[in-house]
Design a protein that fits this description.
mainly alpha; two-stranded antiparallel sheet; glycoprotein; GDNF/GAS1
Length: 369
Amino acid sequence: MARPPSPCSPPPVLLLLLLLLLPLPVPLGAGDPLPTEGRLMINCIQARRKCQANPTCNATYHHLNSCISSINTASPAEEPFVPVDCVEVAQHLRNSSLMSCTCHRRMKNQAACLDIYWTVHPARSIDSDLCLKFAMLCTLNDKCDRLRKAYGEACSGSRCQRHTCLGQLRSFFEKASEAHAQGLLLCPCAPTDQGCGQRRRNTIAPNCALPSGAPNCLELRRLCLSDPLCRSRLADFQTHCHPMDILGTCATEQSRCLRAYTGLIGTSMTPNFVSNVNATVALSCTCRGSGNLQEECERLEESFSHNPCLMEAIAAKMRFHSQLFSQDWADSTFSVMQHQNKNLAMRPQPWAPSLLSCPLTLILLPSLW
């Protein structure tokens, strides 16, 4: 039976992986052995000369070089941004020897060689940042992109209205797909990659969403209990992220704990990551000045910062997100996603037959904050 024609809408995960996870050559170190086919490889200066002899290749390279120049002139405080046309132009060089050229340490004209190498790989220097990749996936999804821009606008600027910001944050985590929302919030970062960690912390726009100063945690709870929605969300968190014994046995499965955790974002009890170098989360509050209620306050604070159920649920989700971008994605991505999201099996997948027939585009979203 013939398959019905499908629209050109490949899933964002595969679209991004097709662009960013294709094997790319890296500059070789002085002591690095050449690969088996090393005799067939040329350095990037030689590849550039070969490209210059072909008018089409030469024009494409100059166009791409102009793109990269505009990227490099961005402010250091801005997010790296690769325009979609730059990435599309780079695809036209896929069969060029430029895409497989190498550079060696101490080679003559090494700087010029490396300049050529990075010109033809415009997104390579940031492709290890998984938080940025999940931001790109959100950008490629109309609904996620629209909802993220809405809370980005509401939560940005020195005169942000915290109440409006929190409302837009709740809207994002309630309406965006769980895969997109949790991908943005719970993206894995290497401990040494503080840029990735900072991007993860900034997901909820903490400068506006979190209370200024450090209020008492019991005061935050009092505010939460006075609001029916927050009170319900807090009860949900205490139910589904509750360790039942000293061994850390959890009351319910990890997925429910994570849903309860994200449900608190946008309330007066909004938690967040505490630093750029680890995945520890906490409320933005203190227990100083709690008096006779010091122990009660510390229990409340530690239900976030030292909660084994929550910590393991977050760690497991980050491991899952790492697997989505592993090198063996073609074999593992679908099996892992089916295990994590069994309900997806019931949904139609119209993109599958025509995945590779669609034009590949990519937008790297600049930071909203």
